[in-house]
Write a structure and sequence with these properties.
The protein is an alpha+beta fold. The chain has 2 domains: 2-38, no CATH class; 48-102, Nuclear Transport Factor 2, Chain: A (Roll). The chain contains 3 helices and 4 strands, in the order αααββββ. It has a 4-stranded antiparallel β-sheet with strand order 1-2-3-4, covered by helices on one side. Strand 1 and strand 2 (77-83) form a beta hairpin. It starts with a helix and ends with a strand.
Length: 103
């Protein structure tokens, strides 16, 4: 009889559903799972050479002056400083994980 009561108590536990105990304790109000919140940030998988090629393809006539990896609170990003044919200095950014180019 004691085993039956113990099994009933365990079945009624808030941690008995399919979600992990960590997700139950911390809540899962965001898009990422609670277990991923504590994982280290992804390191850059795009090299500086690949960044230069991506930027050259998109901004063909511009000259690349510098490429700097910026790692802060957000995802790792490359900041690319360029000089246009007309002499205008411009910065563009490249996502260091997937290679997306944006301004």
């Amino acid at each position: 009889m004691r085993w039956f009561i113990l099994m009933m108590l365990l079945a009624a536990s808030p941690f008995s559903s399919g979600a992990s105990m960590l997700e139950k304790v911390l809540g899962n109000n965001s898009d990422e799972s609670a277990s991923q919140k504590f994982l280290p940030k992804q390191r850059s998988s795009v090299s500086r050479k690949e960044v230069a090629e991506l930027v050259k393809r998109r901004y063909g006539n511009s000259r690349i002056l510098s490429i700097v990896l910026v790692e802060g609170k957000g995802p790792a990003t490359y900041r690319v400083k360029m000089l246009s044919d007309s002499g205008v200095v411009k910065h563009v950014y490249v996502d260091a994980v997937d290679g997306d180019v944006f301004e």
